[in-house]
Amino acid sequence: MNIPFTLPALGPIMPEILLVCMAIILMMVDLLFPRKKELLSQLVVLTAIGLIVMLFKQTPAVTFGTMFIVDSYAIFFKIICLFGLLMTTLLSGQYLKIEKISQGEYYSLMLFSMVGMMTMISAGDLIVVYLGLELMALTIYCLVGLLKNDWRANEASLKYFLMGAFSSALLLFGISLLYGMTGTTDLAGIAQYCLEADILTNPALLTGFALVLSGFCFKVGAAPFHFWTPDIYHGAPTTITSFMSVAPKAAGFAVLGRFLIMAFPESQEQWGPIIAIIALLSMAVGNIIAISQQNVKRMLAYSSIAHVGYALLGLLTGTSEGYSATMSYLYIYAFMNMGAFAIVILLCSKGNRRESLADYKGLAKSNPGAALLMLIFLFSLTGIPPTAGFIGKFYLLKAALAAGYTWTVIWAVMFSAISAYFYLRLIRYMYMEKAQQQFVTHYSPGVTAALAISAIGVIGIGIFPGTLLNWAARSLIGF
Amino acid sequence: MSLPILSLLIFFPVLGAVILLGTGKENGKKIKVMALVISLVEFVLTLPLWFAFDKTTHHMQFVERHSWISLFNIEYYLGLDGISILFVLLSTLITILCVLVSWHSIQIKIKEFFVCLLLLEGAMIGVFCALDFFLFYIFWEAMLIPMFLLIGIWGGPNRIYAATKFFLYTLVGSLLMLVGIITLYMQGGNTFDILALAEQSYPLKLQLMLFWGFFAAFAVKVPMWPVHTWLPDAHTEAPAAGSVVLAAILIKMGAYGFLRFSLPILPEATAAMIMPMIILSLIAIVYGGLICLAQTDLKRLIAYSSVSHMGFVTLGIFSLNTQSVEGGILQMINHGVITGALFLAIGMVYERTHTRLISDYGGLATRMPVLSSFFLLFTLASIGLPGTNGFIGEFLILLGSFMTRPWVALIAASGLIIGAWYMLWLYQRIFFNPVNPRWDNIRRLDRREIITFLPLVILIFWIGLFPNHMLSYMHVSVAHLLEQVTGNPAGIANGVQFGLDAATALPLSH
Questions:
Q1: Is residue B215 part of a domain?
Q2: What is the ipTM of this complex?
Q3: CA distance to partner chain B, nearest, from residue A396 (Å)
Q4: B337 belongs to a structural domain
Q5: Domain for residue B451, yes or no?
Q6: Residue A63 phi/psi, 5° resolution?
Q7: Can you tell me the distance from the alpha carbon of B353 to that of B350, in angstroms, rounded to the nearest whole number?
Q8: Which residue, A232, A415, A456, B402, is the most exposed by fewest CB within 10 angstroms?
């Protein structure tokens, strides 16, 4: 039999192809010019900026059948991920030198994981979702363990690998059940078949749905699938932690949102409350456990669990308003969380990582600039106006209220009030406690740029949020 | 409208704060002078409002309106009416006094202190000018940041606890209000415009829900019993300037919130909730007063007296007639002036003695005669001696509440007696009694400190002797407000007449 082969259109997938090329080039550059370490990070920054520009100009299209979808929704999320890459790279130069991580594989692994995320975001088919997800996860397992001499990093990497493998298995099992019930892995196809065959309440289908949902919740770090988060955030190199808190999360949200609304649009009334419970549980776990943390990275890890909870408030509505709220929030979260991590990295020095909360005591006296920026980022994470964090939270609450989840919202604001306690504690340490140590921070150009971008973003979006919100809303037209 | 005066008022101190932030930290004197100049200019900028204000209309004046976040139909909408204008003036005046009182008492992080103070001023004015509910919330919450830092960095020994408690109490209330605001927005035709929201009617059940949502924020801020417990801590630990701003402006915002939002937007819920509100106010008056008798800490005593006095204010507001509401607003100003003055005086004493325990004092009248005379005046104003402003406000409130519910006025009046008891007793223990030899060489008031008191002394007598001047700003707006609440336009002309009569009938008025 002679099957005619036509090459699918490669235009829509061009950014991913370029990324793969770039990742390989980076390895070569590292090999050929081992002394020019700065070149690598400069190349990654240029790649990230170039791709962001390219994505802005990309026109919506579908390729590889319906497996790979480039719509404005996907573009929005890809830009968040690339923004995460850009910021991480800016932060990396200084940190890698301190921790003596060899740089070639670091950047190229990051680019490969980026390819995975972008594939995931654009996936219109569960197989492609899985493909992207695994590419992302495998590279990140390696990145987490890059500090070879640090037992915490090794533990984190191994733990992440084992738990990640477990969750991938759940996901795959769920996909197979969905495939078994509907005969397709195409997201739109699943929805269509469920409607035609009227099997929406079939137990096997529901099990499949639940398993896939658990797999995604693991990836975004929502409770009760959050147990990996604190250890891995703590053990991983700080730059990777900051990367993980933004880019893979955004990708996970993109795929979760697409899965819910494309494959199961009819059963929003069933999955809405389930996700509401997951969201509230994440907020509760994240915000309450964060109170007892003594390490800044662990605290931010728990805070990220809570923020996943907030972001889920938008998805659970299933409305376009809710989706655009979640999208705006993830973007805002990228700014404020990257900013907070930038400060953590700024304080890090040779032989002393200064990750304990006690190290922040009296920071306002020794490093007033760093303390002021951290203050802004922490107030934004708390959600106090006039910072961007407030706008994001406001939009989420509004969307959830409009969809009728009044009690969920009331609980959400209560948990948000609890979160103020531990964010404020760091501010108290910085401004209201006596310094225990005097040290000088070194602002490298990369860290300075990252801090400036975050601070401008947090204040700018806080005061003039119109552009971002309109962009998010526009990205959903035709979704 | 040619000059955007309200925006100027809000952002001039913010700009000043940014400039201050940019100056070197070595030169404390220069920073203080700059802060003083900024606050003085700001006060001068508010004076045109006072003269240009048209007292014959309840419409918003000095309006500025621009689209801000078009997606949610959020506007940058500012304006003043007879209810808010006085608070703007009070805010700018009090800020000057705060700068003056902090001249020597702030020793560390001088630059940051004045930056916080000026940011706070901008946000406070924003709260009183905002006519868009979202904008209001932004200013309302933004205020928390500088206030938290003021208490937490420059406060007393237990400052961190107090600052955190203040922040969390306020935040919980505000977030509940936020849920209410969003609900209202969706029910009221997707707008945050306060005036447009007030023109619609909502089902009673929704109104009650919203009322309690708003209550959570405003009652914490006032503070009403039983959510008042943050106030004594915050007042006690805050630096003098912090206590003054807190007493004079911040806690007024709760009552202002009731007047601006709860009453006009939720009239039926207000009508249904009059009794609980009055009972809470009475508890605050009597309980707050009794607690004062048991205090050993000077600042704590004044803080609890604020709870009691603010009980009068909420009683006035929820008695819902012209006299009581006007009395309530006037009493807010009065309380700001008097308690502000008391905290200033205590701040000056504390600067010298570094103790707040009442038992550490005694016989200060012989050592600091000028201060003791000022303090006596403020004490008498606080207990409502005729001729001082405290009398006018409390009299109007009692008059108004007596007209509708005599028994309420009776209980509230007992608060006055308790007030006289604890304030005079406090005065005795500090300024009379045997001289404590520890304070033999205490420094007397210098010229700066006396100047700090003067504007407040003038205000005390001015309002006390010519209350109509202040009241005339409110008449039309309060009448309009009551029309919105009671839906009874016929009563308006009457009400205005009543208010004028009551005010002119006061014994010491001209």
A1: no
A2: 0.88
A3: 11
A4: yes
A5: yes
A6: -140, 175
A7: 5
A8: A456
